Amino acid sequence: MLCCSTILSIAQTRADSLMAQLNNPKCNKVFVVSHRGDWRNAPENSLQAIQNCIDMGVDMVEIDLKKTKDGHLILMHDKTIDRTTSGKGKPADFTLAEIRQFAMRNGAGHRTAHTVPTLEEAMLLAKGKILVNIDKGYDYFDDVYQVLKKTGTVGQCVIKAGLPYRTVKDEKPVALEKMLFMPVVNLNDENAQTIIEEYAQNYGAKLYELNFNSDNNNTCALIQLAKKSGSKLFVNSLWPELCGGHHDDRAVELGEPDKSWGWIISQGVNLVQTDRPAALLQYLRDNNLHE
Questions:
Q1: Residue 2 above 80 pLDDT?
Q2: Element (H, E) at 148
Q3: All residues at 6 or more sequence positions from 275 whose CB lies less than 8 Å from its CB, including other chains
């Protein structure tokens, strides 16, 4: 049984419980983070993709942001809407009402009945139910923060950036002061150790996202450096170059979950971002690492 297992009170939502577990240094639970929602079964970054994650018991959903011509934050990964909708052009070329006229496409490129949601709609759906990892949101941070305050969801979100501490402190101090901020560190960068140490000394980072294309001794030493600072670690198992070859397809298609997700977890990683949320959830439950 997990040491951080929590019985929810009437006043405590699932998101409250998950955030408490995330902030508990003694909690050994491994969190499942679903990349762009459940995009294999619904359009990526759609409300349905988020709802699917809530229904299957995922702990955190990752979403991406862009801004429309009339200033609305929408869920969109690419620089254009071409791949994920029936329209063409940049998000900033359209008002929200104009983008709503386009159909979202599923993972196979086919049109669906879904339309592009706003950040506000996504947060109202997620409120109290699931944690949210906001990617590509740093540049819009002031607007993001206002939406989170309006929807009462500041306390269930993580925002991140691959920038040194001093840069974030100068540019977006509120991100460090008012939210759970996650530095993104490329362990192949020659400055990776310095970046980790500066965040540890000046901010006391509770989370690090670590990306690495090799699992050599230097990579493992840097992972442990971040871990020893008292932080929880977030690793992407999406494709080989992000996790030293210990990726989703190795787990699912090659049938080697212990050499992919198992290896990642053995390094002390607490959050795994995946494109295979259902399979990862089952693996963790089979190994008593998830309720």
A1: no
A2: helix 141-151
A3: 34, 35, 39, 40, 238, 248
